[in-house]
Amino acid sequence: MTTIPGLAKLLSSPSKSGVAMLFTKQMIEARGWVNEPKIEEFLAAGYTKQQVLEVILGIAVKIIHNYTNHIAKTPLDKAFQPYVWSKPAVVS
User: Fold this and answer.
1) Could you tell me if 41 and 19 are in contact, meaning their C-beta atoms sit under 8 angstroms apart?
2) pLDDT of amino acid 13
């Protein structure tokens, strides 16, 4: 799998945008079940409770977009081909 250049650095950054990206990643990985300290860290970076909901909205729109494209079998744009995801092989 190809990674997005600079993503690891941004996720580990204490910058406001780094905090937002980390919170979004945590929200996705926890399927919305982030704990209060993670929410407080997001808020302490200068974000608001409304922006917590905006992160959730962004995730929801992306999921709807992905599901629709899966059903419609929309081809991936050439620009994104290097980042195509494929299901990992099952090792038994």
Assistant:
1) yes
2) 58
